[in-house]
Automatic annotation (TrEMBL):
The keyword Transcription regulation applies. It comes from Herbiconiux daphne. It holds the Pfam family HTH_18. InterPro entries: AraC-bd_2, AraC_XylS_family_regulators, Homeodomain-like_sf, HTH_AraC, HTH_AraC-typ_CS. The keyword DNA-binding applies. Keywords: DNA-binding, Transcription, Transcription regulation. Coiled coil: none annotated. Residues 195-293 form the HTH araC/xylS-type domain. This is AraC family transcriptional regulator.
Length: 304
């Protein structure tokens, strides 16, 4: 098993006891991606106790997110037991004593991240560990979907994709914590989902297939839920994607010598004519005209 080199991830020593009198097996792998550390575990029924006395006192406070693929998890923390079935997700504070009880054969994925990155107080993490992240809620659905992607693909993704997946998981955990804190109103959940969609759009602008359906699929929510998240925003989802693409195009027009066709492709337009029409509708100038005007302005100021 690979030990974590990332100082923000703490290796918590665990003591495991098998709960069945039968041939035992325990398969575990651990690796890092982005700023996170992930463990995959498959085993016969067992009870696992955290040995927090062996964690260095100066270690960064951490939280863990656990997705149960099969079997069942009973998280015992602070005298409260939380049951999590297949597809369920739970977030908990690693700095407080805890035990896992897996009464049946199971498979699970655990992701560890610095507590500070979640934006959650210890009280919110305590509340989360006592109720779990509802699988049916928008934030819980997004988080469980991303963890399934991490479990299946994190080792085969390129470095940039792993970093993007890492950031998306942290954002999803923040959505969950907002949902279960005092800011957990419907408006707050929608705002969190809208921000996750904006971040997803920024990272995939060059994909000509970027659309509401594509973003919803990546965030593991329905298209209807995603559009609802933008009902109270200043722009619709489609307007947001168009604005981000045009913003990126303007930066390239002003800061590079790339051709209009190349810039169009870089920001996700396969049809350069469609890109030019869209740009002109926004600026009342074609991309080439806009570039000439912007580049001419320093000389105009110099003559003044």
């Amino acid at each position: 098993m690979q030990l974590p080199s990332n100082p923000s991830c703490v290796l918590v020593q665990m003591s495991a006891k098998t709960l069945v009198d039968a041939p035992a097996y325990r398969r575990m792998s651990r690796h890092e991606f982005g700023a996170l550390s992930m463990s995959r575990i498959a085993s016969v029924p067992q009870k696992v106790t955290a040995l927090l006395d062996e964690v260095h006192a100066r270690s960064t406070e951490s939280a863990q997110v656990q997705l149960v693929h099969s079997g069942e998890l009973i998280l015992d923390q602070g005298g409260h037991q939380t049951r999590v079935g297949p597809g369920g997700v739970v977030v908990y504070d690693v700095s407080r004593p805890f035990e896992f009880i897996y009464p049946r054969e199971f498979r699970t994925t655990i992701v560890q991240l610095p507590t500070a990155s979640t934006g959650a107080s210890s009280g919110v993490l305590k509340a989360l560990s006592e109720r779990g992240a509802a699988h049916g809620s928008p934030s819980g659905t997004v988080l469980s979907g991303l963890l399934r992607v991490a479990d299946a693909q994190s080792e085969t993704l390129g470095e940039n994709s792993r970093d993007a997946l890492s950031r998306a998981i942290v954002d999803a955990v923040r959505m969950v914590t907002r949902e279960h804190s005092g800011a957990g109103t419907l408006d707050a959940r929608r705002a969190g989902l809208a921000e996750a969609a904006r971040d997803m759009a920024r990272r995939h602008l060059s994909d000509p297939g970027l659309s509401a359906a594509a973003i919803a699929n990546r965030l593991h929510v329905s298209v209807r839920t995603l559009h609802a998240a933008f009902e109270d925003e200043r722009e619709t989802l489609g307007q947001m994607i168009r604005r981000l693409r045009l913003d990126a195009a303007r930066r390239q027009l002003e800061g590079t010598t790339a051709s209009v066709r190349q810039i169009a492709e870089d920001v996700g337009y396969l049809d350069v004519t469609h890109f030019i029409r869209t740009f002109k509708a926004s600026e009342n100038l074609t991309p080439a005209q806009w570039r000439r005007r912007r580049l001419a302005r320093p000389w105009e100021h110099a003559r003044l």
